[in-house]
Amino acid sequence: MPIPDYQSLMMPLLRLAESGQEQALRPAVERLAEDCGLSQAEREELLPSGTQRLFDNRVGWALTYLVKAGLMERPRRGFFRITERGKQVLQHPPAELNAKYLERFAEFRAFRERETVPKRMGRRKETEEARTPAEVLEDAHRRLREELASELLEQVKRGSPGFFERLVVDLLVRMGYGGTRADAGKAVGRSGDGGVDGIINEDRLGLDVVYIQAKRWDQPVGRPEIQKFVGALQGHKAKKGVFITTGSFTRDAQEYAKHIDMRIVLIDGRQLAELMIDCNLGVTTVASYETKRIDGDYFEHE
Question: pTM, whole model, 2 decimals?
Answer without folding.
Answer: 0.62
